[in-house]
Write a structure and sequence with these properties.
The chain is α/β, with parallel strands linked by helices and about 375 residues long. Helix content is about 40%, strand content about 15%. The strands form two sheets. Strands 3-2-1-4-5-6-7 form a seven-stranded parallel β-sheet, sandwiched between helices. The chain has a six-stranded parallel β-sheet with strand order 10-9-8-11-12-13, sandwiched between helices. Helix 1 links the parallel strand 1 and strand 2. Helix 2 runs parallel beside helix 3 and helix 3 runs parallel beside helix 5.
């Protein structure tokens, strides 16, 4: 099968027991792109979310009451459902599904594992794992992924720092860039509300308290902060004393609603805290802000700086210092012409280099090789 040929009615099954049925990478990028290429695509997931992707068939897994039940029961429910689909290729998205993937291999199936994160580093920051157990659990996680690397048909990684953990001969780097419509340019900043925006999970590790404190330090009643995303289970609601009317937390929104809010904001925040897993991965939100044609305020990590400085699309700051975040926001609001130039450069860079259309080519090449 050539890269530019459609799926010829080939059937692909994506499986997740952790991610939402509206997950941006799995559903809005990978599944949608496969449907557009002519594949029949099935998503097996436990989420009640509506993926809103025409042509995607959703198979819902039963819900579970605890993390332990999810780890023990959902993978085998997913295996039974996956075998019923009789697909040409299976694409799994969670490390807990690797035993299920190996079982699929015993049935002669083609299976791809999508490593969204550098798993051992991610384990080291999991609050629900006792601190003394994190290092051995991280080692175990790495060993399980090594088994996947050895026996599965392909590995997909979302960032370059994860790629060296797998054999290059069957690993595809499919970076989590923004899905963008080149013919739909967002409006100029001068027409937008005085709003600062963040999209993603909400926790102190992701900068929740620091963003709220920065708004308090900013002290501008005309400027609002919109925090889009779910409050993570480990996080406490932020203290909004004195700025209640300036901070909005609408929770998880569908993709269309997020896009509307992005197009009406003037500054995008990506001030993740200095945790190893964050420091070695591109934050998707960075490219989403650039695609929405707005300047960014991002954590001063070497990886983030490599984008922001080379493109000149925003300001990098110490993410642990609310005063630095507030100062950067104020600068962008007080220098509208410079902020617009940053926004324009960011949008152009996404269209040229950091769009999903660019990243998706590697995924399609992997599928073409496995299905030829």
């Amino acid at each position: 099968m050539e890269l530019d040929q459609p799926g010829r009615d080939r059937k692909i099954v994506h499986v997740t027991t952790v991610h939402s049925a509206g997950d941006t990478r799995i559903v809005q990028k990978e599944c949608r792109s496969l449907i557009e290429a002519g594949f029949r695509v099935v998503l097996i997931a436990a989420s009640d979310d509506d993926p809103r992707v025409p042509g995607l068939d959703l198979r819902r897994l039963p819900t579970t009451r605890s993390r332990a039940q999810r780890l023990m029961l959902r993978p085998w429910s997913a295996l039974r459902q996956a075998l019923r689909e009789k697909a040409d290729l299976y694409h799994i998205h969670d490390p807990e599904l690797i035993p299920m993937a190996l079982a699929l291999k015993l049935f002669g199936k083609r299976v791809v594992y999508d490593a969204h994160e550098h798993l051992p580093r991610q384990v080291l920051s999991k609050h629900w794992i006792p601190r003394m157990m994190r290092d051995p659990v991280a080692r175990l996680a790495g060993a399980v992924e090594a088994v996947a690397d050895r026996f599965l048909d392909g590995i997909v990684v979302a960032n370059a720092s994860t790629a060296p953990r797998f054999r290059p001969s069957h690993t595809a780097l499919v970076e989590n860039y923004a899905r963008v419509r080149p013919d739909d340019a967002p409006p100029d900043l001068k027409t937008r509300a005085s709003t600062v925006i963040y999209v993603g999970g909400l926790s102190d590790h992701r900068g929740l308290r620091h963003m709220v404190d920065a708004m308090r330090l900013l002290g501008r009643p005309e400027v609002g902060l919109v925090l889009i995303g779910p409050l993570e289970s480990s996080a406490r609601p932020p203290d909004l004393d004195g700025i209640e009317g300036k901070v909005s937390m609408p929770g998880r929104l569908d993709l269309d609603s997020v896009e509307v809010l992005l197009r009406d904001a003037k500054v995008g925040l990506s001030v993740l805290q200095p945790i190893p897993n964050y420091m070695s991965n591109y934050p998707t939100k960075l490219f989403e802000y650039m695609a929405a044609r707005m300047p960014v305020v991002a954590s001063d990590f070497p990886l983030y700086r490599s984008v922001v400085d080379s493109v000149r699309c925003g300001i990098v700051v110490d993410p642990t210092a609310p005063e630095a975040i507030a100062e950067a926001i104020a600068y962008l609001l007080d220098h509208p012409e410079e902020a617009q130039a940053m926004a324009d450069r960011g949008r152009a860079a996404v269209l040229e280099r950091y769009s999903w259309n660019v990243a998706n080519r590697a995924l399609m090449r992997l599928y073409a090789r496995l299905l030829s």
